[in-house]
Amino acid sequence: MKEIYSAVKVTDTVYWVGAIDWTIRDFHGYATSGGTTYNAYLVMADKVTLVDTVKAPFKDQLLSRISSVIDPSRIDYIISNHSEMDHSGCLPQIIEMITPEKVFASPMGIKALEDHFHAGLDIIEVKDGDEIDLGNRTVTFLETRMLHWPDSMVSYLAEERLLFSQDAFGMHLASSERFDDEIEDWRLEHEAAKYYANILLPFSHLISKVLGRIGELGLEIDIIAPDHGPIWREKPGRILELYRKWAEQEPTRKAVIVYDTMWGSTEKMALAIADGVVSGGASVKVLKLRAAHRSDIATELLGAGALIVGSPTMNNNIFPTMADTLVYIKGLKPKGMIGAAFGSYGWSGESVKQLEESLRGMKIELAAESVRVKYVPDEESLAACRALGEAVAEKLG
Ligand code: FEO
């Protein structure tokens, strides 16, 4: 294959050979406004090893980058750390094309790859703590089940003190820069937080365990090479620290108001509540559902102390955008938040009760009495909204 795309040197032995997806804007329901990358790595050890592949349409980009270092047919081993198709999509074709000596995956990875491709791939099982010898390099595997799929594992290249971490510590960000020290800190932190909030939040208790395990095993990590976004070579400790903090889900004095509106009444209520939160001494973020994507709402909730939801009643139900968002947030299993509900209605007025039920279903304690308004709020109703905001702020402590 002609060299069109180049590999990027990570260490003397390891090259990034992934693909940049500049145009993706929806990653299974996650808004990827900055695109993403599908990272794969080539380890130029005695046994030349490819760690993960890329999404199927990017196969030629992967092969081209590998070709800039070595003829792909000289790859001896492939490691599949994660079977989701953004990393395994072209694995069967790559195996067929280069016929590697061995392919490795976790026990659940082997099952998942078969369930995806039904190809009878010949894959060797590696379990937690297993090592493989690449001649002059050694790879140790750590199973990280449910981070974020049952098959997930990470691979540690001891001689380079480098962790191939698959999705963990990654972010959806397409960039020409490959390393953390080439991108602004605020951008790294925002995109990593968004990734954590939308992909890893439900598994926070497992993240704390894995981080503890890395400590117990005494793994020295100089470089974290995830499957999306930049490689952490300057500040691997920073992303580990952020994961520790996010996994704890310690609530802050921040309330997030999420609402939708038909004729502006619920919006007026939202703004009065927001002012109440601020006058109560807490900070607030106001998000209108038709102006904010669900994945940005999830990001705002990471570390928030309160979720306040508002919806008009439409055909005896909450507004459809609110139903979408509540299902999404429930699935992310946020912990430690208090909440409140509000909404306007014309005649039947079921929305507020439904919002309260949803919050209870997420184990979010109701911190203030809900406010319901018929048609359009008057001054008294808006004062009640403001009082709701103040009550939430007070409960945030
Ligand atoms: Fe990037 Fe879980 O796949």
CA-CA gap between termini: 62 Å
Q: Beta fraction of the residues?
A: 15-25%
**CATH architecture annotation name of the largest domain:** 4-Layer Sandwich
The number of helical elements comes to: 12
Question: Which of globular, elongated, flat, extended, rod-shaped describes the shape?
Answer: elongated
> Order of strands across the biggest sheet?
1-2-7-8-9-10-11
Assembly classification: single chain
CATH superfamily of the largest domain: Ribonuclease Z/Hydroxyacylglutathione hydrolase-like
Radius of gyration: 24 Å
Give the total of beta strands.
Answer: 24
Largest sheet: 7 strands, mixed
What is the fold-level CATH name, i.e. the topology of the largest domain?
Metallo-beta-lactamase, Chain A
CATH class division of the largest domain? Alpha Beta
Ligand set = MU-OXO-diiron
Structural class: alpha/beta
- Determine the fraction of residues in helical runs and give it as a percent range: 25-40%
Number of domains: 2
